[in-house]
Amino acid sequence: MRYGFFPGCAYKTAAGYRESVEALNRALAIQLVEIPDWNCCGATAVFSINSSVALVLSGRLLALADLHGFDEIITVCNACYTTLRKAIHMMEHHPELITEINKHLKTETLQLKRLLPVRHYLDVLANDIPEMRWRKVKQSKSDSDLRVAAYYGCQLTRPWKDQGQPERPDVLEQFLERLGVTVIEHSAKTLCCGASHMIPYAKDCAPLVSRIIREVRKKNGNIIATICPMCQFNLDAGQGRLNIPGTPIAFFTQIVGLALGIDSKDLGIDKLLVPMYKISDNKE
Amino acid sequence: MDDRRLQLKFYETHDGKDVLKCIQCGTCSGSCPLSDKMDYAPRELFALIRDGEMEAVLRSNTQWYCVSCYQCMVRCPQEIPVTDLMYILKQMAIEQGISPKTAKMPDLYMTFYREVLKKGRLTEAMLMIRYGMKHPTDTLSNAFLAVKLLKRRRLEIIPQSIKEPKRISYLKSADSERTETK
Ligand code: SF4
Ligand code: SF4
Phi and psi of A168, rounded to 5°? Predict the structure, then answer.
């Protein structure tokens, strides 16, 4: 399987996402090759303005991945994930759209010939890596006081309904438990983080962040594992406006790295806004 | 365009006619994280579409407050693709040159859109700067945050782009074409 990695625009500046993904790739010998000259998927913004442009953006990325011989596109961002799947879904139902897209791509000597599957890196880690390899990498159990609340946000399970239950998925919990991480059950795992509305409407979005953090603390979690740069950013930076004890918001890859015994320096943990040493046991 | 023509146009879009299946149960409104900020919650908006109040619909902030969380869509008992219809309404409002009273989200999306059309990639700092020229207070309130990000080496100041942005000038022709909202 050749994984074509689509980092997306928010990956590079995300709090230690790149560091931790690269550390895991090294430790587990995962070949994640960046799709050369990838472009932005357009996210919610472009589809809101003009779907032709949105489709051409996804089409270009799919054509590039195919041209370079990849079998699958791997994303690390929920928005990239659902935007690409949405475009593919439209193309599958209206094949004439592919002809339209190709008219544009032709000027760049690109052609969209097939629609590659799009998957999230979580899916790769949880399902593609043989148990043996995890066992080989994992150091003897490190004592940890982390009680992790998995947080999926919206656009992994919805609207698809094929990544576990759209409102109460558990792939991340099951995966983390396999690695010996303590996870907690809670009911905020697919609530909205505010997405890009956080920029103009930070005040309106504060209650959205607050209800997620409060729920996690009430259920005795002391750290949240995210799978999307925007979710991570909104929950991490959004706490600055709230008057509640700080709860660190990590990427799931950082938590996996810690569970494997990888040094926190190699996981970019110092880049979180609410620092990890803030883990406190005071329940609300 | 008058209300009637706009309504027909909406019904002609791919899932537009689905609003006729709506049983006004309110599940969408009850599931929506931001419905209390909307001029009309989704259920109400669909009632207005059926009543032909298209101008009011397109002028409302509802579709612009939609964050695309798809919560309504997976819950709707009539399997109406509520979120997809919100996208259609946003595109229609832009096509018709109708913007809501608060233009923040259209401005933000437009800024994003233009950056990607030009560069093929988005640099978040550029988005903040350009959007901030129109809405300075939104950006200023984030200035402290910017300093914190800078300290953690998380602010990308060099604009990102694909290798030869000229090669994607066809995005501009796609922009002028717009496949009617499918
Ligand atoms: S959930 Fe569906 S049927 Fe119920 S009001 Fe909303 S759109 Fe109509
Ligand atoms: S997709 Fe939009 S309309 Fe539906 S619940 Fe989410 S924010 Fe509300």
Answer: -135, 65
Which residue segments constitute the domains of chain A, with CATH numbers given? 3-121 (1.20.1050.140), 139-278 (3.40.50.11810)
Q: What DSSP element (H or E) covers B57?
A: helix B54-59
Enumerate residue ranges in chain B where pLDDT < 50.
Answer: 180-182
The answer to whether ipTM exceeds 0.95 is no
**Res A162: pLDDT:** 86
Q: Is the pLDDT of residue A280 over 60?
A: no
Using the atom order of ligand 2, give the atom closest to the CA of residue B28: 5
Q: Does residue B76's CB lie within 6 angstroms of at least one atom of ligand 1?
A: yes
CATH architecture, range B3-95:
Orthogonal Bundle (1.10)
The pTM score is 0.93
> Which of B170, B172, B175, B178 should be substituted to probe chain A, the one whose Cβ sees the most A Cβ atoms within 10 Å?
B170
pLDDT of residue A261: 92
